[in-house]
Design brief:
The chain is α+β, with helices and mostly antiparallel strands. The protein folds into two domains: 86 residues; 123 residues, Immunoglobulin-like (Sandwich), CATH 2.60.40. 49% of the residues lie in helices and 24% in strands. The strands form two sheets. The protein has a five-stranded antiparallel β-sheet with strand order 2-1-4-7-6, with helices on one face. It has a four-stranded mixed β-sheet with strand order 3-9-8-5. A hairpin with a 3-residue loop joins strand 6 and strand 7. This is DUF3221 domain-containing protein.
Length: 216
């Protein structure tokens, strides 16, 4: 009889311990879930705060840029009115001369301006001829006068190539555009020649319309 009682007692203790272990495991899981949820919430809050700070910085930068743009527009408008008052008595010739000053043309070989004599000495196996047209970022003259300063027709037609380039391409920006003629694998001792129009020659301040590139 005593043995039976002892067995029941042991079974009761084992069951109780088992229940306690299960309860402890369940509580541990709950604690882990709570901790994970708290960590996720904290990480999310930090990320939101970071994004809000970045948004504030971007908004501040945008406001600053808008202020600068408004100031520049106001400044350009002021000078435009000022110049309109100054040129009201100019002749048509004087107005065109003024407009010409607002357009700039450059002829470059591998980024270096062509000398006034039109003869270029170079030591490169790749040669790039670039004709660049730049206009004023703020055309302060009336449009009909301002456009008179541009070279006649299409500026790229003022360059006459006598040799076929390996590649021809155009770069186009807001106020700067250019055409490029690239020659690759140019042999030493060879010569590349081309011509510019009389009008472009004057704009560039060259002595002749013929341009010669000698690859030494």
């Amino acid at each position: 009889m005593k043995r039976i009682i002892v067995c029941f007692s042991l079974m009761f203790i084992l069951v109780a311990c088992s229940n306690n272990s299960e309860d402890n495991a369940t509580n541990s899981d709950k604690i882990e879930k709570v901790n994970a949820s708290a960590q996720l919430s904290e990480d999310t809050t930090l990320q939101i705060n970071k994004l809000e700070l970045q948004n504030e910085e971007l908004q501040s930068a945008l406001n600053s840029m808008e202020t600068d743009l408004n100031y520049k527009n106001e400044e350009a408008e002021y000078y435009k009115k000022l110049i309109n008052g100054l040129i009201k008595d100019y002749s048509d010739t004087q107005l065109k001369d003024l407009a010409i000053q607002l357009w700039d043309y450059k002829l470059e070989i591998n980024g270096v301006p062509v000398p006034t004599n039109g003869i270029v000495e170079i030591q490169e196996n790749t040669i790039e001829i670039s004709l660049v047209e730049s206009q004023s970022a703020y055309p302060i003259l009336p449009t009909e006068i301002y456009m008179q300063g541009q070279i006649s027709g299409n500026y790229i037609d003022h360059l006459k190539m006598t040799s076929n380039p390996s590649e021809t391409y155009v770069t186009d920006g807001t106020v700067v555009t250019a055409i490029h003629h690239k020659f690759v694998d140019v042999e030493k001792g060879s010569t590349i020649s081309f011509a510019v129009s009389e009008e472009l020659k004057k704009r560039l301040g060259l002595e002749a319309t013929q341009i010669t590139i000698n690859n030494k």
